[in-house]
Amino acid sequence: MSTNEVRTERIGATLLITIDRPRARNAVDAAVAAGLAAALDLLESDTDLRAGVLTGADGTFSAGMDLKAALRGESPEIPGRGFGGLTEAAPAKPLIAAVEGAAMGGGFELALGCDLIVAAEDATFGLPEVKRGLVAAGGGVIRLPKRIPHHLAMEFLLTGEPVSGIRAGELGLANRVVPAGDATAAALKLAEQLAGNAPLALAAVKKIVRAADGVPDADAFAAQREEMGHLMASADVREGMRAFAERRDPVWTGR
């Protein structure tokens, strides 16, 4: 499934999702948001797919919201899914951002909406919304202070100044920092590693992490016990135990 604005490609058990508006620096308009939402639907619905990698065409991740489209009245949001059809979507399967070039404004927020980030050394991350009279309302203001120390997050949000991929790695924003041009390959390799793990367990990790966010420990453990009850009743748990005992690789079914 591909559109003019968002391309998808199956690479093993990974869905590579590419924002393809290079003339607009892969800025997000209504068509991109719809294309990303459709790509995420494909990732979630296809049992042969275990992880996704999100990137942008021609060496740019995304310049964020398409301001020209917004002035025409287009919305870059999908109801219930947020900016770009992603930032509030909470997909069950792991999603990795492969960032080359600019991840600015909403582009940075798309990356923050992913589970892992692989950054090129010369990538740029920034939330310049305050320079345009706006705030980073696609998840930047909410998520960034949870990912890095408060004062560093506030520097991003209040100055609007960008940092490099190397600095993003130093701050703990990026899981991998790689030479320019290598981000997608490194993200695909990481996705392949994730795809070797049990799909139900991966989904359970994400669900528990979300349920534990900002709640008392007692509530977090209660949510975890419920999720573990479902997981322990699965065929994949039994397969994982048998494979360990038999010293072989497990064959996951997602059941």
Report what the structure shows:
The protein is of the alpha/beta class. The chain contains ten helices and eleven strands. The strands form three sheets. The chain has a six-stranded mixed sheet, with helices on both faces. Helix 8 packs antiparallel against helix 9.
- The coarse overall form would be globular
Query: Average pLDDT across residues?
Result: 96
| Percentage of β-strand residues | 15-25%
- By secondary-structure content and strand pairing, the structural class works out as alpha/beta
Q: What's the gyration radius in Å?
A: 19 Å
Compute the number of helices. 10
Largest sheet: 6 strands, mixed
The total of beta strands comes to 11
Provide key terms for this protein:
255 residues; alpha/beta; three-stranded mixed beta sheet; 42% helix; 17% strand; globular
Structural topology:
Blueprint (H helix, E strand, L loop, with lengths): L5 E6 L2 E6 L10 H16 L5 E6 L10 H5 L5 E2 L3 E2 L11 E5 L2 E3 L1 H7 L3 E5 L3 E3 L13 H8 L2 H10 L3 E2 H7 L4 E3 L4 H13 L3 H14 L4 H16 L2 H12 L9
Parallel strand pairs: 2-3, 3-6, 6-8, 7-9, 8-11
Antiparallel strand pairs: 1-2, 4-5, 9-10
Helix pairs in contact: 4-5, 8-9
Overview in brief:
With about 260 residues, the chain is of the alpha/beta class. About 40% of the residues lie in helices and about 15% in strands. The strands form three sheets. It has a six-stranded mixed beta sheet, sandwiched between helices. Strands 7-9-10 form a three-stranded mixed beta sheet. Strands 4-5 form a two-stranded antiparallel ribbon.
